Structures are given as C-alpha cells and as structure tokens.
Inverse folding.
C-alpha cells in the first residue's frame, strides 16, 4: 500500500442521519490529512446527506469537494452498459445526471464499508489482496468490542475483511475527532459573542439572547420521539434559572404542542432548522446541557465537554439499554446522573424528573460540568479513529 493511500468509503443510509453523519466526518477527517490521497464517498441517499452538508447537490451523480469525490450509489451502479458508455474522465459538471466513468470501479487502496453495508458486486469483483478491506462497525462501549476489534473475516476469493470497532478504550479503534477539535471548542466557549450571534442567526429572540447573556441556561435537544420530553420541560420549569430549550426541527412535535398549554415564564422552546455538521458542533459547544442520540451527535456532545444525556438508537429486546449501561459503567458520572440517563431511556417521565431536578441545582450542575470536561480531556488522550484506522491499514499491508 502506498504511504499516501487512496480511500473509498461506502455508506448506506439505513435510518436518520447517523450513518451518513459518521461517514461524512470520517471522509473529511481523512481528506484533511497529508498522508491520504483522494477520498471517495459512495452514498445511496443524497437527500439525507444534503441536510447535514448543504454543499452536497442532491441531484448530482457525482460531485467533487476538494479532495473528496461524492458518488451516488444507486441501482444503476455497476450496470455494465452504464459503465461502458461512460466518459473516460470525471470532468462532467457536478450536477449532471450521467453515467459513472469506468475507472470509478477501480478499487482504492483502502476500502471502508460503513456498518457492514458491503460494496456493490462489480466493485467487489475488482478487489484483490492489494486492497485493505475494513468494516467500520457501530460504536459501543460493551466489553466484547475489545476482543473483536481488528479481527479478520474470510471472504469470497480469499479476501480478508477486518472488523474495525470505534470505542472508548485503548484496545478499540477510538472516536472520530479532528486534531484541533478541542482547541477550537475552547476558543468558541471562551467567546460568548460567537454563541450569541449563532443563536441570533437561528432566530432566537432578542429577549432570550439577553436572558442568556444574563446567565440563563441553554439546553439543546436532539432526541428520539420516545424520550420523556414533557417531563424535561416540567423539570426545567421547576428549576430556579431561566432556560431556553433549543430543539432540532422535527424532534418532539407532540410534547411541544402539549407544552404550549402550560407555558412557564422561565422556559421557552426554540426550534431550529437543520444546520451543517460544523454548526451543529457549535450548538453543542454553546449549550449548557445537551440531549443527544444515536452515534455521531453522542460523540460530538462528549467532545463539547458539557453535561449531557444520551439516548442510544432504540433496538429490539432493549439492547440499547445494555449499550447505555456499558457506557455508563465506563463513564465518570455519579449515580444521580446515571439514574437520570436510565430514566430518560426507559421513557419514564416521573423518574427522569425526580432524578434531573436535583442535578439542575447550581452546585450539582457545576460538578456535572467538571466531570464532563474531565472526561472529554481523558478520552482525547487516545488516538482518534482516523489516525488509528490508517495505522491499522498500514500494518496490515505490511503483513499481507
Ligand atoms: O440521526 P441519528 O438518530 O442516527 C442514527 C444513529 O447513528 C444510530 O446509531 C444508527 O443506527 C441509526 O442512525 C441508523 O443520530 P446521530 O448518530 O447523532 O446522527 C445525527 C447526525 O446529524 C450527526 O452527524 C449530526 C447531524 N446533524 C446536523 O449536522 N445538523 C443538525 O441540525 C442536526 C439536528 C443533526
């Protein structure tokens, strides 16, 4: 493998924004490195993609953004006439709905399939031992992850595919994190004006901007519909301070309409339109308390270094509760925080309110904040996922 490998990332959007959210961050982090050549990101749903990355043209067949080429992975991909009729160079306008050039199917040095999505057959048939093939798995803090990380599995044609598990410990593949992320976060958090102008640009009223300036709390909510949102709003209303709840569009519609009837003067909800990933990070950095979900917003809330409540993606047989318990066991959080997080995920409003109200009191809240800051610093001592992935691939290429 070259010292500056080319990389293909394959992404199928199963549900929501997490699949593409993780792949887009990974693609950008790899492309930003000097030890990486071109990165291609194959995605089957450009509409979801464009919501978190407005520079993506949802009508295009492929599009080049700096070192990254985006390729629409649809049913026609690999259809032989499609490839034969294609132009030799990818020199067509970004938005043209045309066939892919034949060379698109020449595999890169490193082939990453996100979450076991398996690249298309015509691409796979061109792969050989020259490629390092990775299955980037979902994030989990469960202990079995350590023993499975890096294991190969035999594939047709004698190829090997390696399981690459993100994680929270040294024995895993780590977490996505740009090298300068925590420094950028610190600069942002030290500049209150940046946060206020961001909130203003999202339509937050002058009255609430003033209240925030005067010390009101900002809670950011990006949760699944099952979360006991009404209980959260009631708990915030019972707290001493004013709170602005900033909510992603489409989240908690039912709770919001129910809430209007019992409006409390110290709590308001502001719904924001979808923003790009970098702005999303800034929202998490700007908030005093973050409610996040799934995988990518979860990791970004950890890096925000602020108190947070995580809601893992709901799974059958309550497997998400096992995921949550495993992560809580690794975390530095005390029993009260763990109780609040469990109640949030068990959709138990009264239990959640009973657990969270004491945590919102000034002393408990500032303790929670210190724990969150400390944990983000601790986790940032591990090598980030993109670095670990490249190191792993370089090692495998020497031994294969
Ligand atoms: O959208 P999600 O619920 O995605 C989920 C999970 O990843 C889950 O593990 C997976 O199995 C399932 O999809 C299929 O939550 P997540 O992971 O936080 O992804 C949301 C992405 O959307 C994240 O990259 C942040 C981004 N985002 C923005 O860029 N702008 C926004 O305004 C908002 C609200 C989100």
């Amino acid at each position: 493998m070259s010292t500056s490998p080319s990389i293909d990332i394959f992404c199928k959007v199963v549900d929501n924004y997490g699949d593409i959210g993780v792949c887009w961050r990974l693609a950008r982090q790899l492309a930003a490195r000097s030890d990486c050549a071109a990165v291609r990101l194959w995605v089957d749903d450009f509409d979801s993609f464009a919501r978190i990355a407005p520079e993506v043209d949802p009508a295009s067949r492929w599009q080049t953004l700096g070192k990254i080429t985006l390729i629409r992975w649809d049913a026609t991909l690999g259809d032989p006439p499609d490839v034969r009729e294609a132009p030799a160079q990818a020199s067509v306008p970004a938005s043209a709905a045309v066939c892919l050039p034949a060379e698109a199917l020449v595999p890169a040095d490193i082939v990453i399939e996100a979450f076991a999505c398996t690249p298309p057959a015509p691409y796979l048939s061109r792969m050989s031992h020259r490629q390092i093939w990775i299955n980037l798995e979902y994030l989990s803090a469960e202990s079995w992850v350590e023993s499975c990380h890096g294991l190969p599995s035999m594939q047709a044609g004698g190829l090997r595919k390696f399981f690459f598990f993100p994680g929270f410990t040294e024995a895993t593949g780590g977490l996505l994190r740009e090298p300068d992320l925590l420094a950028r976060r610190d600069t942002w958090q030290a500049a209150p004006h940046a946060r206020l102008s961001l909130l203003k640009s999202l339509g937050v009223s002058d009255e609430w901007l003033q209240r925030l300036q005067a010390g009101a709390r900002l809670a950011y909510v990006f949760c699944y519909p099952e979360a006991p949102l009404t209980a959260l709003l009631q708990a915030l209303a019972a707290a001493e301070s004013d709170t602005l709840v900033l909510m992603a569009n489409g989240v908690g519609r039912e709770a919001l309409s129910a809430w209007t009837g019992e409006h409390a003067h110290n709590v308001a909800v502001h719904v924001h339109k979808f923003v790009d990933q970098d702005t999303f990070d800034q929202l998490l950095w700007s908030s005093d308390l973050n409610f996040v979900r799934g995988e990518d917003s979860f990791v970004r809330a950890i890096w925000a270094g602020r108190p947070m409540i995580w809601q893992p993606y709901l799974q059958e047989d309550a497997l998400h509760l096992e995921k949550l318990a495993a992560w809580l066991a690794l975390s530095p959080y005390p029993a009260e925080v763990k109780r609040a997080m469990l109640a949030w995920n068990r959709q138990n409003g009264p239990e959640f309110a009973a657990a969270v109200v004491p945590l919102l009191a000034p002393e408990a809240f500032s303790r929670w904040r210190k724990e969150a800051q400390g944990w983000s610093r601790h986790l940032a001592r591990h090598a980030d996922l993109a670095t670990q992935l490249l190191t792993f691939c370089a090692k495998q290429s020497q031994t294969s």
